[in-house]
């Protein structure tokens, strides 16, 4: 399974609906400073619900909505919203149809060769709302997280390596570094279960 495309609409510096294609093995995004490269990564973290743990660059969710006056600190009026959709290629069957149906709470999920996870944040005068969709079915964050965990993508995982993470890993003690390798290899989960069992 891999990310096939990210569609940003009114998200951060992407004031127009923009579809960014990704390749199966390796995709490089280049551009001048401030052109929005890191915003694309923020979009992925936002849509997949990984934002809180992996350090999205925004103080509050509503800062993620496109704001033409972003540079001078002014803000536009009226209802505002941002949407990001992450399109996953699941043609290798990483996730089964029943796993997707289960997460969506509906049989009506279309062809699961393609899994589309969409998140929308909407700001009103006195509040804001956040919505998640899985193949156009309305779901909760926990549904998305449980589904992704079945494909090996977790908020604590290392599927996303942020700026500074590499330096941090280099500066770690050998023991902490070992913990990361255990985490990636999927051994850490069993260590935690073993510890729980001993406590009982
Ligand atoms: P660098 O090469 O320096 O890492 P980058 O390509 O990663 O740059 P980003 O950090 O993705 O750039 O984009 C920063 C730009 O996004 C800034 O110009 C900032 O003003 C703009 N920006 C961030 N949030 C918003 C927003 N809510 N509305 C409009 N523009 C925004
Ligand atoms: Mg950047």
From TrEMBL:
Annotated positions binding ATP: 32-39
Localization of this protein: Cytoplasm
Function in brief: Required for chromosome condensation and partitioning.
Family: Belongs to the SMC family.
Subunit structure: Homodimer.
Domain comment, as recorded: Contains large globular domains required for ATP hydrolysis at each terminus and a third globular domain forming a flexible hinge near the middle of the molecule. These domains are separated by coiled-coil structures.
Name under which the protein is recorded: Chromosome partition protein Smc
Species, as recorded: Natronobacterium texcoconense
Gene expressing this chain: smc
Residues of the full protein shown: 1 to 200 of 1194
